[in-house]
């Protein structure tokens, strides 16, 4: 620990004022802001990472970070804040928290974790910003979508028609000796196969 005093001259006389009788530097730390903040946004998430400079290893392991991000055109006063649970210099933002087609800006700051008793610090200044934008989700071709929809509709429709022809022919066999069902069924099945081939 240290003893901090202030000396001054008042009315031609030197005076010494004790301001902090017991000063511990490890309890009054202010770190430099994080550097080289970068980002990579996809359709599912945005990854943000940064680096620290001139931080001893025993402090790097007990740091906590706070992320702040906003829409690029908005003020930082309305930005969202996230205090990260890990001391790793990285974070992910889920795509559900971002709007498609909107640019965002993010920055980060650091301090010693509040759960640490041996050291204490205040928040550093904010880092430089990184700008990112959520990637658009690729759209399925409308033609492919319509084709698959027709295929799904055709299957139950075909099955229902086959049942109708089966029962209709079964009832008509009592009135006619000729067995017409196989010929009708073969013709209808051929038309179904041709239709599905066209859809593909």
TrEMBL record:
Membrane topology: Single-pass type I membrane protein
Main location (coarse class): membrane
Compartment list: Membrane
One of the GO biological process terms: immunoglobulin mediated immune response
Record-linked InterPro entries: FN3_dom (IPR003961), FN3_sf (IPR036116), Hempt_rcpt_S_F1_CS (IPR003531), Ig-like_fold (IPR013783)
Domain of life, source organism: Eukaryota
Sorted UniProt keywords: Glycoprotein, Membrane, Receptor, Signal, Transmembrane, Transmembrane helix
Keyword presence, Transit peptide: no
Keyword Ion transport appears in the UniProt entry: no
Any one GO MF annotation of this record: cytokine receptor activity
Domain Fibronectin type-III positions: 33-134
Protein name: IL9R protein
